[in-house]
Amino acid sequence: MSYYQRHVFFCLNQRANGEASCADHDAQGAFDHCKSRVKQLGLAGKDGVRVNKAGCLDRCAGGPVAVVYPEAVWYSWVDQSDIDEIVESHLRDGKVVERLVLPDHVGR
Ligand code: FES
After folding, report:
1. Ligand 1 centroid vs 83 CA: distance in angstroms?
2. Contact 60 CB / ligand 1 (< 6 Å)
3. Does the predicted model carry a pTM greater than 0.90?
4. Pair type for strands 49-54 and 6-11
5. Matching InterPro entries, A to Z (predicted)?
C-alpha cells in the first residue's frame, strides 16, 4: 500500500529565455486551486491525495501539465473548472478525465 493513494505533480516552471513554460499558463493558480479543492473535499493526506509542485517535467509543449500517480496519467487543462473535474473524477472517484489527457506524442 502506498503512503498516498494518489500523488499529483504540477509543473510550475518559468523560463526566462522566452521558451514555452507552464508558468506562462497560470500553473501556479491551477496548483493552488487543486490543493485547496483537495483539502476542502477532505481528500488530503495519508491514504489520500498529495498535491506537489514540480520543476520542468519535459513536456512543455503541452503546458500547463500535471501528472497523477500511481496511474501515471498526464493532464493539461484550460481553466479551474477543468481542475475541479480532475479532482472530483480522478483524484476522488478514480475515473480518468479522458478529454484532458495529454496525448503521448507531446514532449518538450
Ligand atoms: S515547463 Fe512545464 S513541463 Fe517543462
Report:
1. 18
2. yes
3. yes
4. parallel
5. Thioredoxin-like_sf
